[in-house]
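Action item from last week, closing it out:
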Amino acid sequence: MTANHTALVAELESRIRPLEIDVGRAWWDSYTDASPEAERRRTATEIALRDAYADPSAFAALTAARNDAGSDPLLAREIVVLHNSFAPHQVPAALRTRIVELETSVDSSFNAFRGRMHGTPVDDNTILAVLASSDDSAERQVAWEASKQVGAEVAPRLRKLVQARNEAARALGHRDHFALALATSELDEDRLFATLAEVDAATAAPFAAWKADLDARQAERFGCTVDDLRPWHLDDPFFQEPPTDGAIDLDPLFADADLTDLTLRTYDGLGLDLRPVVDRSDLLARPGKSQHAFCIDIDREGDVRVLANNTPNARWTDTMLHEFGHALYDTSLNPELPWLLRSAAHALTTEGVAMMFGRLPRDPEWLQVVLTRSADEIEGLASRLAAAQRAALLVFARWVLVMTHFERGLYADPDGDHDTIWWDLVGRFQLVHRPDDRHAPDWASKIHIAAAPVYYQNYLYGELVASQLAATLAREAGGIVDRPEAGRLLVERFLAPGSSRRWDHLIEDATGEPLTAAYLAAELAQ
């Protein structure tokens, strides 16, 4: 690498860095307080950033620099990261603006929308409470349908957004946006779908057996036949996680818990203090705020925040530990790294860390040590906790198969009958009966399709990372709970390097072997 390359990277960072920070702040504001003004500001900042990334002369210089091997690995990596960031935006300004406006519009609808039950607006926590507790099938159906109403609200705009993303991808020589997104995130499509096929083969039979047992209990509970069961007889509107009838009801353990205190206590036990993140976060539900959860690093200088909508139950405990796993990653990056490399190695590596921590509410040691339940109580739950963990992994793996196959099909044919295709995939992978005579854009009610497109494969890889990383920490530090040595190993080997390493090289170095499904398979076999 020459001095010219160093100057190129420095100049581009000076342009991109303040714009990235502006976007982060505007994005946070639009999710915490949905309003026309927040939407306008987010749109303006997104357009300014994407215009900067669209600079054709900078992209040409990066392409030339990327092909010029040199001796400085950090500089070489910065150029690769910049090239992958610039590539998707080499399209006409009008198209970039159209994509941003559609994305912001759809996101704003999700943030402000509240489904209606019996004519009354309700938030997601209310809907989930009905699905978790009601034995009235009719009431459950009303709640489930309320969770899907946002789909009809956003579907027409979402189809236009998919078409616009495809138009941009094809202008850049890619088949569609699905292919472009994988290529610019250092993922191989053939390898991905080979992995999906392996996961399908490994989980199909155990999932079918588990689901048959669940269906029998659900039919008895609701006084119907198995053939009469419908999606609203499950606790989660998308069947992303098992209902308590198919696993274990841990909610009573958390009924009086302070989820923030539990989260801090968990990471304190690793010698890791996340109180500064809590101080900047927004963790309780209120009107006008996104009902979902996420972590955002605003500036790569320590301004890391989590959004949540906490209710004292097992689901939100899992979510808090998960999102603060992302926060741990962002706050543990080596501050001496160049700014451009101060981010996770890949979405799948940060998801892996988050998922590893999100599993802890089903871990007997964590329940006893952190939640301070008695040894006798936890011993009595041990076998059911193991079964619950296995069920959670099975259910989520099958859900990822739905989402990844659906998104590939959506971008392959945006005008297709996706209202039907969605339920075909749900039936195939999740063994859930479609609602009778329903033809609605239920797929569009999943916010990730709009806000985090072509992302779900990272959750699948994340599960593999979580299992392999947990096995490494168990082998070298004795586990995770209250083990500062595990915290040190995690930070030094896996988190601190940031994106200075390709994700696959990082995983191999940190765990001693390439990413493998063997550890997840071992957990499913228990």
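Closing note: Residues 375-412 form the longest helix (38 residues).
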